[in-house]
C-alpha cells in the first residue's frame, strides 16, 4: 500500500523530488512528517530551493526535509519556517537583516537557522522587510528594517537590525500574537494582572494604519505618525482582541465577540467604508456573522466566519477577491464556489493574490504574475498561484499537490506563496 502511495507522489511532476519519498519512508504511519512546499517568484532565494528560478507549481523545500515543520510565513522577498521543536529558519533577501543572520550575506538560496533566538519559538511572522518571533514565554523578538520604528526598539535603535533583538519595553508584557505589515507591526498581549487581549501597534503610522487617531501638537501641526515603541490602541480598550492582521497600509483585528475592526488606508472605497478619507481609529464593520480569522493584503481584506464562510472586500485588482470579477467591492461579499461544500479554516493575502485552506486543500486566486512583473528571457517571475502558469484567476482554484496530501498552513508573500503540508 505504501509503495502505491509513493508511486503516486513520484508521478506528480510538480517539483516533488525523490527526497520527498525518503521523507515518507521515515513516517511509517506513526507520526506524519510535515514539510514545506513553495511557489512563485524565486528571486534572491525566497523559495529556499537553492536557486533563484521562479516556480509555477509547488516545489518541496528539500533543505528542510529532516525538520518537522509547524508553520511558514512569507514576507516581501524572504520566508520564515518554524519547526515543531521551536527552531526558526530563514531564506531569501537579507538587505535589511530580515533573515536574522550575518549581515555579510545579502541573500541566501536555502534556509539557514537563526541562531540568535535563546528560547523555544511558538510563532513567527514576516513583514515586507522585517521579521518577528514569539517565545513560549511570550517574549517578542524582532529584526530587519527599522526605518520607521517597526521593530519597536525605540528611537535610538539602528535603522537596520540583523540579529533578533528582544523588545525590552515589553518586559512586563506577554505577547500572544504579532502581525507585520509593510512598515508597521501589531500585537496582542497578555498583561500582568489584566485580562488578555490588549492590542498594541508601532512603526509607520501613515494612513492611520496604527489606529491611534490624528494627534496635533500645541501649535496645531500634525505630529509624526510613527511610533518607535509599542503603543496601546486606546479605542480598542474594553474589547478583548483575539487575532490581528497587518496589510500594506491598513490593519484589522477581531475581538472575542467576533466583531471585526478595520483602520488605515481606505481611499477610493478600497476597504469598504463608504468614505474617501482614512480611518485613523478602529471602525467596526457591520453586516458580518461572527468572525474568526482576518487577513489584510495590499488593498483588500478577507474574513473567515465561525461557520467557515469566507467574505472579501476592497480593491479587486487581478481578481484577488475571488468573486469572479475585477470590480471594487465596497462591502463584504461571500466567496462561494468550492467553499460551499467545505468550510475555510485558513486565509492569507499577498499584495494582489489570496490563498485559503478548505477541506485540507490549498486554493489560490488573484494576481498570477502575468501583469506588473518583470520578465527574463520571456519567462515571468510570477507563478504565485501555483497553477502551472502566470495568468490571473478570478475565482478560487485548487493547487494540485498530489494524492493523500493535506494542507495545514498557508502564507502569501508579496509575490510568492508557501504551505505546510502533511502526507495522510
Provide a concise account of the structure shown.
With 424 residues, the chain is mainly beta. The chain is 4% helix and 44% strand.
Structural features, described:
RCC repeats lie at residues 34-85, 86-137, 138-191, 197-257, 258-307, 308-360, 360-423. This is RCC1-like domain-containing protein. Keywords: Repeat. Residues 38-417 form the RCC1-like domain. Helices cover 4% and strands 44% of the residues. The protein contains 2 helices and 30 strands. The chain has helices spanning 2-10, 18-27, and strands at 34-40, 55-60, 69-74, 78-83, 88-93, 107-113, 121-126, 130-135, 140-145, 160-166, 173-180, 184-191, 196-203, 227-232, 241-246, 250-255, 260-264, 279-285, 291-296, 300-305, 310-314, 329-335, 344-349, 353-358, 361-366, 375-376, 379-380, 393-398, 405-412, 416-423. The longest helix is centred in the first third of the chain and has 10 residues, at 18-27. The model is unreliable at 1-30, 216-221 and 267-276 (pLDDT under 50).
Mean pLDDT reading: 87
Distance, first to last CA = 13 Å
Overall 3D shape: globular
Q: Could you list the spans in which at least 5 consecutive residues all have pLDDT below 50? A: 1-30, 216-221, 267-276
User: How is the main sheet built?
Assistant: 4 strands, antiparallel
Structural class given helices, strands, pairing? mainly beta
Percent of residues in beta strands:
35-45%
Strand segment count: 30
The Cα radius of gyration reads 21 Å
Approximately how much helix is present in the residues?
under 10%
Protein name: RCC1-like domain-containing protein
Organism: Aquilegia coerulea
Domain RCC1-like: 38-417
Pfam family, one: WD40_RLD
